[in-house]
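=== RUN LOG ===
request id: a7f3
mode: sequence -> structure
chains: 1
length: 214
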Amino acid sequence: MQQPLSQTLVELLDENSAQVPLTLNMLLERTQGRGLYILMVVLCLPFVVPLSVPGLSTVMGITIFVLAVRQAVGKPPRLPRALGERPLPEQLKQRVVVSGAKVLCKLEKLVRPRRTHWLSWPAARLANGLLIAVMAFLLALPLPSPPFFFTNSFPSYTIILLALSMMERDGLTIWLGYAAAAGTLAYFGFWADLILNHLVNWVGTLIELLRSMQ
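=== RESULT ===
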């Protein structure tokens, strides 16, 4: 019987707290085939509540995007050195344990292997991987809160549901992930004009800053 994901994460984080710093690629290697989905879940845990560290969602979103695309096309789960070999900050590790343990414990009671045959189809793997990539892209958008509340939380909950369902091959609860994805897309669609204007201004400011540094 597989050890619960919440227990696995706590043990890994505690084990490395006073030894070799834990990296994302190390987490991928030490979770016995579940690492891809576990890492996606871990990267979303800091956003299970609306408050988060500014800029963190962009880094996490890009990382999940890379993993999701590799999963969709059937490549081994591995991150580039710039992302995968950097030690996880102690503050982030504690945030994962404190904020995420209760959420994972509840989800683990819901998700289990059932009606799984279609989840193993290449088309399903591709579609689910790309859907997670879309959610990761939304998570990575540099949107302030306020006024854009829950723009980190909604994509994160969707990714967690999809990743856990795919990891446990649960063909029922993954539909909750699809519903969450639809709701997330509708929410971002509602804010589309304001989000686009903010991103255009953000890119313009970034370009001016780069020019001033030359």
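=== NOTES ===
Residues 5-212 form one domain.
The two ends are 58 Å apart (CA to CA).
=== END ===
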